[in-house]
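Figure 3 (text version): structure tokens given as input.
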């Protein structure tokens, strides 16, 4: 039995329109999502790269990706996944230096 997803960090590319607010609102409406943090990483004439941090209990990753794709976005990578009964924060290691 798989554990519920509690946090996802996604690298998302989107067109200039719709704006970052609509992407955040759409993500917040997805099943299991309780909070969304979206940061603009890079902007170009035609596209923007966003870092999505999504938290909740039982996040439906497939529905979330489909919602972002419906707005014209593309998930480039899943950069972090946290599952289980609680959220485990990252610990520093020598490789992080």
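Below: residues designed for each position.
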């Amino acid at each position: 039995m798989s554990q519920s997803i509690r946090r996802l960090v996604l690298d998302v590319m989107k067109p200039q329109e719709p704006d970052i607010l609509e992407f955040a609102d759409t993500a917040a409406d997805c099943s299991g999502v309780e909070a969304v943090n979206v940061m603009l990483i890079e902007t170009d004439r035609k596209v923007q790269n966003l870092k999505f941090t999504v938290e909740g209990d039982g996040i439906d990753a497939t529905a979330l990706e489909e919602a972002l794709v419906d707005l014209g976005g593309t998930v480039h990578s899943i950069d972090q996944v946290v599952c289980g009964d609680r959220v485990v924060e990252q610990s520093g290691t020598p490789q992080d230096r």
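The two ends are 36 Å apart (CA to CA).
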